[in-house]
Amino acid sequence: MYLYVESDWSPIHEAAFNGRLLTLQKLIDQGACVNLNTLDMVSPLHGACTQGHTACAKLLMENGANVNSSTVDGKTALTEACAQGHVTCVPLLLQHGAASLGTSQSSSPIHVAATKGHPECIEPLVQYGADVDQHVDELGTPLQIACSNQHLSTVRKLLQLGANVNSSVSGDSPLHMAARQSSPELTSVLLEHGADLFLRNSEGRQPLDLAPPNSLTERLLKQAGVSPLMQLCRLHIRKAVGNKRLGAICDLQLPTELIEYLLYQSDPRGDLNALKFLNPATSEFES
Description:
With 287 residues, the protein is mainly alpha-helical. The protein is built from 17 helices and no strands.
């Protein structure tokens, strides 16, 4: 039985980091410790996941690698995989018991994925228990981080998974952030998901007050008024269901177009089809 020991970079680290599966298997068969750590507490599993070598990571975990060990700066194999966007490694680690939650920027996988702009890593994290609205001091929520970094696809994914569009950090809501950055794309997506135009930050200012004069963002905020009934229905239904159960909408006996609309998965034509189901008497959208 091999003990957890510390060493410098070793042959098993080298094999895992470079994806040399046969060499890694040979080293394990010869008795190399899969939990051998460097002086910075980097394990072979860290190396494999940093580089996205899924087969090596799987082999290490099958031979007893500690999936939740952390480096001296708090990084786990899961946060390393999320930072690099290695989407095949993320679910594998979660299946082997990787913790989906964290308490700091370095140890919270969903915050790391949001910071780096890897929406494909966020969905499996949420499926395995990560909180889409998890708040980390001085950082806020994943949505706020994604907005501050202008990762539009990540913002879409977080909102699709039920993130609170009106959460605030240091007084600013995501819509305040979008207005400050003069991002019409972010502004449009946030408004579509029910962002509150009239929220005031710690300075008493609304998003419109922060948008540069004569910008497209200012125009969008000025034009945004009462949401259409169809949009209000979607927001109300999603709120009633709750973000922990949004996936259950797929199991409802509803037309596919309507389910996709409720989950923000439809294209504009799909929205029109959904409207037909909400109001069959509307002939304007009939084909």
